[in-house]
Each structure stands twice: as structure tokens, then as C-alpha cells.
Amino acid sequence: MLRFVARRLVWMVITLAAISFVTFVVIKLPPGDYTTTVIANAEARGQDIPDSQIAELKRHYGLDKPFIVQYLTWIKGVVLHGDLGQSFAWNQSVASLIGNRVLLSMVLSIASLLFVWSIAFPIGIYSALRQYSGGDYLASFLGFIGMAVPEFMLALVMMYIGFRYFGQSVGGLFSPEYADAAWNLGKLLDLISHLWIPIVVVGVAGTAGLIRITRANLLDELHKPYVATARAKGLPEWKLLLKYPVRMSLSPFFSTVGWLLPGLISGETIVSVVMSLPTSGPLLLGAVKSQDMYLVGSFVLILSTLTVIGTMLSDLALAWWDPRIRTRFQKG
Amino acid sequence: MQPLLEVRSLRTHFELGDGVVKAVDGVSLSVPRGRTLAVVGESGCGKSVTARSILRLVEKPARIVGGEILLHPDSDGEPLDLLAAKDKRLRQVRWADIAMVFQEPMASLSLVHTIGDQIIEAVRLHENVGKQAARERAIEMLGRVGIPDPQRRVDSYPFQFSGGMRQRAMIAMALSCRPRLLIADEPTTALDVTTQAQILDLLQDLQQEFGMAIMLITHDLGVAAQVADEVAVMYLGEVVEQGPASAVLSHPKHPYTQALVRSVPRLGARGQDRLVAVRGTVPPPYERPTGCRFHPRCDAFMAGKCDVTVPTRVRSDEIDVACLLYGEEKS
Prior knowledge:
heterodimer, A: mainly alpha, MetI-like fold, two-stranded antiparallel ribbon, 77% helix, globular, B: alpha/beta, 11 helices, 31% helix, cell membrane (chain A), MetI-like (chain A), BPD_transp_1_N (chain A), membrane (chain A), transmembrane (chain A)
């Protein structure tokens, strides 16, 4: 087991190195660089920036150096000092820029995740056990609607409802009076009162999908002979269903749980843009548009790290959950 | 003496979209105490559905629509009708009185729970014993069915066992509560011939040791001849003949059984003799023939009689048979 984890860690480092390099290449692929954005913005304002000033900017940001030097300088900072570099557009360190928003992103994502799980699992299990009942049809109907309605649409509708019937300020995670205030109980309560709309919006599609997955997985297991054995043993119906088929049906869930980790940071960009939530998604979108390369690179690097870690956690969780996989690890 | 279990006019139907399939339609048979009854018949004749109906294990779209299943726990006491019993009472009968071994040892144990866990669960469900005592019972039973090193293997998972070992483990689990009746639904079909013989031997040994009755569902007349004391022959959802194994297999009464016995290949048979199959094919499931269900395939078909009159069970020598050839003699 330890050997397995160690081997996976080595591969993780290699994978991340490759990803960071490829990311850098991709960021550099479009013509121009950050100065192009600066010039375009200046022209839009009717100003003209002299060539000398552009050259100065390029030197300042290190954009005049060869590509490989830029990459190595950046990655050296990341590895040796944990320094993700500077954001050109915000004129701040990437770490401080992201840090503020990552926390809120995680709060939103974890809250929606709990919302999804607590709703989807019971409904999915119910749907499978009472297949083709009225309740199952209702759950399927609502599920398909949930999957079909685009999130931004739902966001707009929910914002309208929140404003019209609950008198909430439109968008954002805080009321205006708390937006820049320091953290206190009032601000926390204000956050919670705003959070439910994005949670529902973000969670609906996931809930709908998970209901369908849980239902299908469980239906596959319900009529297997081992369930008949358990029933023949005289176990009460609910107990045997939870112990045997429901447990089996959750394996696919464990194998995908790792994918949630990167979603915690980056997910729900569109919803955040529509509802102007101060999470990290809109920041990433803006950075890509303005070729704010260290900001983009750092984002991608963080997301890939989380993906790789998430995949490994997922494997470990699956091994813990499913003895068939666990015993295979123990042998090799 | 009362038989241990009596099935009377059991009817289990599959209610499908385009009609009703009467998989079991009037099965009557009895399982003698402490002996082995083999239920034989072609695929689709309703053997397995009968077996599952006894413990009310049939699932939608199948439904038990009629009949009685009488369990006589003592040879002279009041019988219990399992079809009329409340769910709670039925759950007490399951495994404690009647246990079951299924066809696929691969699929009938949970792969994510240890063998021990699954046996201990059954023991503790029906007997008021502690974890440790139940575990010792599990180890003892695993040893008894011939699993080597049971102290260690009790914590193994089924996927770490071979097919034969799994079926042994399944039998150990089935006998862990000392049932009066073990229903074995094609327990050796998925196994190779050597393992099959070992499992059948094991079942016979265990029967002598524990004194339980066995109801063995099989399509293999050879298996039936090897282990059965009694044989019941099923055709299209009913029992056409039941009697002592030696009588039924060597001097069958019903033309269907006669045809089945003729169709078994024999070692040492003369080379030029072709294997005789039962004539014709099984009729489509939605249409049962009128009169005797076997008449379209029967060599002894009597026009105007077999296709009109439904035969009733009569006793001829030691055998109960449902055939008009014998009804005549009686009246």
C-alpha cells in the first residue's frame, strides 16, 4: 500500500511538471502578450502609448526574455518560494489575489456538494426501489428538467424570485453594507442568507444527474442473486437493501469523488459571472481574456494539482470501500 | 408420518405486458422428512420458480397467485402455511427452517463482505448468540464443508475463492442455522464435473450428519439418480409424476418421463443406437395445450381424450402420476 502511494506521488510530480509546461506553451500560443491588451485599452480610451514605454513594460514584466527563461523563472519561484508570480492586470501577487476568492469558492462548492448529496442519494435510492411508481416518475421528471435547464437561466430566475419575494439584494454573496466589512457574525449570517440561491442554482443540475446515476446503479444491483440470498436469510427488507445492493451501487460514486476537488475552486464560473459572485471563476475568465499569464498559469497549476490529488484520493477511497480493489493493492 | 413440506396446487404467474405466463400452474409435491427429493424437468418448466415460491422469493413481474405451502415442523403438529404467513413469521422460517443454495455461487454471495460476515449475520439473525460464538460456528461450518484453513479463510472475500469453494461456502452458510430443509437450486450446474461430484457427495454426507431434508432442483437425470430418494418430474408448470427415485427412473409411468429417461446417453450403449430426444418442442409460453399439457408431444396420445380431459393425479404402484393412461385403470 505504501509503495503504491509512493509510486503515485512520483508520477504526480512528473504529471504536474508536464502540465505546467504545456499550460505555459498554450498561454503563449496566441499572438501578442499582456502589452497588447494594454495598448488596445489605451487606444480604446483614445490614447497612444509610445514604443519606448511598451518596451519598458515588456522589460518590466520580463516579456522580452526568451520563452524558456520566462517559464523557468516562474516555475523556480513556485517550487522554491511558493511564489506564484505577479498578476499584470491587478498589479498584485497572484497568491493574495486568488486567496480571497478561493475561500468563498470553496464555501459555495462544499455547501452545494452537501446539498446535492443530501437530496440526490435518498431520492435516487427511493426511485430505484419504487421503480415506475408515481414518486419515481416525479423524480425522473424533475430530474430531467433540472438537467435540461441551463444554469444561467436558473440563476436569473432565482435572482428574480429572491429579489421579488424575499427582498434580497440582487447578486453577490453579501449585502452592500457588508461587502467590504470585516468578518463578524452579521456578515456571516448575511452570507448564509445569500448563499442559498447559488447553492440551489449550482446544485440543481448535479442533483438531477446524481439521482439518475444512483437510480441506474442501484437498479443494476437490485435483482442480483446475492440480494435474493440475503432475503432468503430472513433479513428485514430495508436492512438488506442498505447493506447489500445500496452499498454495491455506491462504488462508482467513490471512483468519481476525486473529480470534485478541482470543481471546488473553479466550478460554477458561469453562475458566478451571472450572479456576480466574488468567487474565483470570473477572475480566471478575466485573466484568460487579458493574457494575464502568471495568473492563468497559477490557476491551471492549482487546478491540475487538485485534479491529480483528487484522483489519488478517489483511488484510495475506492480501495477503502471495495475489498476487490484493496486486495489487489496489497498484492502488488 | 407427515412429510416435512407439502406444496399444493401452487400457481406462480408472470404478469407481463403482452400476457400472463403461467410458469408454475398447479404444482403439487411433497418433501419427505430427512430425505432428498429431486425436482427434474426441462429448462423453463418452472422448477426454479417453484423453489423460489416456497420461501416467497419471487420478484415482480412474477406473483404467487394461489395454492398452499404447508410446513410441518413436527411430524404431528399443526402445519404452517407459508403463503398465508405474516412477513415477520416468514422471515423466521427463512434460513432457520428452510435455507437455500442458488445456482451461481459466483453471484449469490456479496463480493464486498467477507464470507464470515455473511455467515455470522445469518446465525445472529436467528439465534441469540454473541459475535464470538457465531464466528466460531462459521469457522466450524467452513471446516465441515471442506474449506482448508477455515480460521483464516473465514475473513476472506468470496472473490478470493474458486467456484467450487464458493459453493462450499454457500452450503456452509445455508447449514449454519441447522435448517430442516435445504433447497438447492441447480447447485452444481455452474461447476465442472469433478467439482459437481464432490459437492453432491458433500451434500449427502451433510444430510446424514444433520438429518435435514434436501429439495434438489436439477435438469440432470444423472444427478437425480445419484442423490435422490424421491423424484418429482415437472412439465410446463406442473408435476406430472412423483415417486421413489428407483421406481421413477427405472420404470417411469408418465410418457414424458419415459421419453426423458430414453434421452439420457448411456455408457456402453451400442454405437448404432441414436440418442432419442423428446419429440416436438415445448409449446409457446402464452398458449398452454388443452387437456393434458403434454399431449402434442406424446407417443401414447389418445385423440378425443388427451386433448380434452385434464388428467388428475392417480397412484399406480408407488408412483403418483398425472396421465389418462392410468386414470382408466383406476376407475
